[in-house]
Write a structure and sequence with these properties.
The complex is a heterotrimer of chains A (290), B (293) and C (398). With 290 residues, chain A is mostly helical. Chain A has helices at residues 2-33, 50-54, 64-97, 101-115, 118-131, 140-166, 169-176, 181-210, 213-217, 227-236, 242-271, 277-286. Chain A has one domain (53-286): MetI-like (MetI-like fold, Orthogonal Bundle). Chain B has a two-stranded antiparallel sheet with strand order 1-2. Chain B is globular and about 75 Å long. In chain B, a hairpin with a 6-residue loop joins β1 and β2. With 293 residues, chain B is mostly helical. Chain B has a single domain (26-292), classed as MetI-like fold, CATH 1.10.3720.10. Residues 1-35 of chain C have low confidence and may be disordered. Chain C has two domains: 65-169 and 301-369, D-Maltodextrin-Binding Protein, domain 2 (3-Layer(aba) Sandwich); 170-300 and 377-396, D-Maltodextrin-Binding Protein, domain 2. Chain C has helices at residues 3-15, 21-27, 78-88, 100-108, 122-130, 150-153, 183-189, 209-219, 230-247, 255-261, 271-276, 314-324, 327-337, 348-353, 368-373, 382-396, and strands at residues 65-71, 90-96, 116-121, 164-177, 203-206, 250-252, 266-270, 290-293, 300-306, 340-341. By secondary structure, chain C is α/β, with parallel strands linked by helices. Classes of the chains: A mainly alpha (290), B mainly alpha (293), C alpha/beta (398). Chains A and B meet through α1, α3, α4, α5 and α6 of A and α1, α3, α4, α5 and α7 of B.
Chain lengths: 290, 293, 398
Amino acid sequence: MTSVSTRRVKALPILIWGYITWSLVPVLIAVIYSFNDGRSRTVWKGFSFRWWFGDKYASVFHDDSMRQAIVNSLVLATTTMLIVTPLGLALAIGSHRLKGKSATAVQGMTSVPLITPEIVVGAALLLTFTRLFSGIPLGFPAQLLGNVTFSVSAVVVIVRARLVSIGSSFEEAARDLGATRFQALRFVLMPLLWPSIVASFVVVFATVIDDFVITSFLSAGVESETVPLRIYSSVKGGATPALNALATLLVATTFTALTIGVFGLSFWRKRHGEQGGFKSALSDLTRMGE
Amino acid sequence: MNKAARLWAALAAPGAFWLLFFFAVPFYAVACVAFGSIDPIFRDAIPQWNPLNWSFGEFNAVFSSVTSGPLRGVFIRTIVYVVSAMAISFAIGFPVAYYLARHAGKRRMLLLLLIIAPFWVNYLMRMLAWVNLLSPSGLFSRFVGMFGVQYNWLDGSPITVILGLVYGYIPFLILPLYATLERLDWRLVEAARDLGATSRQAFRVVTVPMSKAGVAAAAILIALPMFGDYYTNDLLSRSPSTEMLGNQIDYYINNSSQPQRGAVLVIMLSTLLLVALSWYLRSTSRVGKERVR
Amino acid sequence: MERRDFLKTLFATTGGIIIGPSILAACGGTTSSSSTGLIIGTPDSPVTLPLVGEPIADGLANEGGTIEILNWADYTNPEVIADFEKAFGVTVKQSIYDNEDAAIAKLRNGTLKPDLIIGMTDTAIARLMAAELIQPLNHSYIPNKANLLAGLQNPYYDQGAQYTMAQFIYGNGIGYRRDRIDPSELAAQGYDSMWNSAYNGKLAVIDSYRDTISLALLQAGVTDVNSGDADVLAAAKENLIRLRTETSPKVDIVSYQELPAGNRDIAYMWSGDILLAPFYLPEGTTADVLGFWYPETTITANDFLCIPKTSAKPVAAHQMINYLLDNDVAVKNQSYVGYQPALTSVTAESLINSGVIPESLVDAVVDDAKYQAGKRITSLSPETDALWNDVWTTFTAG
C-alpha cells in the first residue's frame, strides 16, 4: 500500500525540479546570449558587452530608439503607479465600507477588469479614444489612462485583503476616544494600510512595465514605444542580441522593484510587530491573499 | 445618506467614475462601432450612438462567417488550442502546485520563489527565449537534430503555439492552484486515511471535491486571457494555418482599415466569455450551497 | 462578496448603461465621411489631381529641430540619414509601418503625425487625396526632380508630380535558394512553383493583399491586376486557398532576411528585397546561393515620397525629398536598401557594372524594357476594393 504512495511522492520532486528547469532555463539562456560577441541570437561567438554598450550604433546604451523605449517604460510605469494607488485605495476603502445596492454595483464593476482579456480592453479603449473621447491623444496620455484603468482592480484587491484582516476595531476605538470618522481614517487606518500601499506601488509598477497589449493598442508610433513593444516589433524583424539585452534589462528592473518591495514590507512588518514576515510580504505581492 | 455613508461614497466616487468612463463606456463604444455603419470610401467605421438606430448587418455577416464561413476555422482552432493548452497546463501545473502545498518541507520557501519567478518575467522575454531556442540554428533545434529530428518549429506549427501558450500561462495557473490547495483542510484527508481509504481514494473523494471551486477559478483565470491571446501566435508562427481569434481582432483593429469587423469580433468574444463566466459563477455558488449543507 | 450578487450586478452594470445619445454625440467627434468619390488614374487614363490646399511659399528656411518620417523598415540607408542630419542641421526620427492600409487609417485618425512619408505607392494615392492627407509640393525646393526617369516626372496617377516624387522602381518575382532549388526547374515551373507542395513549409508570400492576390491572378493567366470582376476574384480566392493547403505559406515582408538565413527556400518578393538579401547572409555564405526568377508577365511599380498636410516641418521635408533624389545619394541609398532608384543615371547597366549587384541576382535588376512591360497596380474603387479585401481575409483566416 505505502509503496505506491511513496513512489508517487518520490516522482513529484523530479516533476517539480523538472518544471522549474523547463520554466527558467530558456530565460537564463536568453540572458546569457545577450553577452554574445556575434550578431546572432542563437550562435555563440564568445563573451562581450558589445550589445550592452560596446557597439556604437546598435547597442542598448547607444541606440536612441532603445533608450527612448526604456525611458518611456519607466515614465509610464511610475506615473501609473502614482495615479492608480490613491485612486484604488480610496475606491477600496469606500466600496468596502459602503452598504447597499450601489456598493455591490461598484464592487462588481471593479472586479470585471480582472477577468477581462487585455485585447478586449485595449480594443475598446482604442475605439473610444479615436471616436468618442477624441480629445485624448493616442500615445502616452492614452497609454497612461488605459494602464490606470486596468490596474485599479489589482490595487483594490490588494487593499481590500488587508482591510478585511484589519477589521474596523481600531477605528472604532479611535472614535470612542473622540476622533471623527475622517480623523480615524487618516491617523489610524492609513498607517495600518501602509504595507498595501507599498505592495500596490510595487505590483502596479511591475505590471505596467511589463504590459504589452493595452500599451500596444494605444501607442502612436515610435515616440510612445515602450520596451515590450520594442521587443515585439524587433523579434518579428530579426534582431541582434541587443534585443536579449533589452529584455534582460526589463526583467532586472521588475525584479529589483519586487525585491525592494518584499524586503521593505518584511522590514516594516518586523518593526510593527506583525506576524508573517517574508512569506506574507511575498503573498502581498502575488495577490494570493485574495 | 448618513454622515458615514457620505464619507465612504465620496472616497469611492473618483474610482467608480473612472471605471465608468474608462471601462464601462468603452464597451458601449465598441457596440456602437460594431452596430454602426461604414464610410463607403475608406471602409472606416462610423459609430452609431443611438441604440435605436443600430444596424446588425455586419454582425450577421460575421456570425455567418463564423458558423459556415472562413472564420469558422479560426474559432474552432482557437477553442482547440485553448482547451489543449489548458489540459497540458493542468497536467503539469496541478502536480506542481500539489507538491508545493503538501510535501515541500524545508525547501518550501526556495521552491516557492523559483516557481513564482516566471510570473514576474516579462511574457515577451519568455517567448523571445523560445523563439531563439526553436529557430533553425537555435539550441533546441540543434539538440533534437542530433537525434535526427528535423522540424521547423517556428513555421506554422500548432504544437509550437500550444506549447507556447502552456509555457506562457502556466505560472498564472500554478499560483492560484497553490493558494487553493494550501488552504485546504488536510486533516480531512488524514481522517479519510484513518478510516481505511487508500491515498488514491482519499484524493478522489476528499481532495478533489474540496478543491473544485479553486481549480475552476484557476482554470477561468488562464482560459479567459488565452482566448484573447494573439502575440504568442504572432511570435512563434507567422502562418495563417495557426491563426487565432485574437489575431483576427488585432488585424482588423490595428492593421486594417476596417475596424468595424474587429469591433464585432470583440463583442462576440466578450459575449462568449460572459457566458463562460456566468456558468462558472453559477456552478461555484451551487458548490458553496452543497458545502454548507 | 456573494457570488450571486456579483452575477446580478455584473449584468446590471455592463448591460444596463443607457446614456443619452445626444450627450455622447456632443462630446465625441464624429468622423466625417467623404462625399467625393476616389480619383483614380491609370496608365491608360492619367489623372491630374485637383489642387487641395496651398503649397508652401518659396525660399523659406529650414525649420530645424526634429523631423519625423514614416517609413518601411530598413528602407533608407542610416548613413544617408546621418548625412542629411549633418548637412541640414535637423534630427531625424523614424516611425515604421508595414501595411499601407493600416498606415492610412492611422494617418486619418491622428495616431501617426509624420512630417514626411516614404514608400507609399499608387494603390494609396487615391485615398490619400480623398482624405486630404497630403499637401501639394513646391517644386522650387526640388530641383533634383530633373534626375527622375522622364515617365516618372509626370506619372499617370499624379500628372505634373503635384503631390508626389517617385523614389524606387521594382518588379515582383520569385526569390529562391539556388542551393536548394534548381534554377532551371524553377524557370520551367514559373508561377506554378508557388503552388508546388514540395516546398511546403518553406515558402512565403508577401503580406500585401494587392501583390499576393495578383500572384494568384497571374498564375491563372489573368493579366488585369486591377480586376473588379467577381468571377475572376472568386477564382483567385480558390486559387489562394489551394496555395495555402499545398504550401502552408508564411505571410510577411521579411523574406529578405529569412531567405538568406535559410529558414525558407522560396518566396514571392519585390525585386528590391532580393537585392537587399545578401546583407543578411550568415558569415561564410556568398550571394551565389540566392536567385531570382523574373517573370515575363509581372507587376512593376514605383513608390514615392509625399508630405502630409499636417507636417510641422514642410521645408525640411522638401529638402529631404530633394536630397534623396540626388544621384550620388541615391546610389548610396541603393547600396543599403537594395531597391533601384528611379533616376536616369542609375541604369541597370550602371548598377551591374559597378559591381554592387551579385552575379546570381542580375535578373532582379529592372531595366527599361522590363519596367515598361510590367503591369501596374492602381487604386481600386471602393466596391472592387471590398471584393479584394474579402478574398484576402478568407486567405489569411487560415
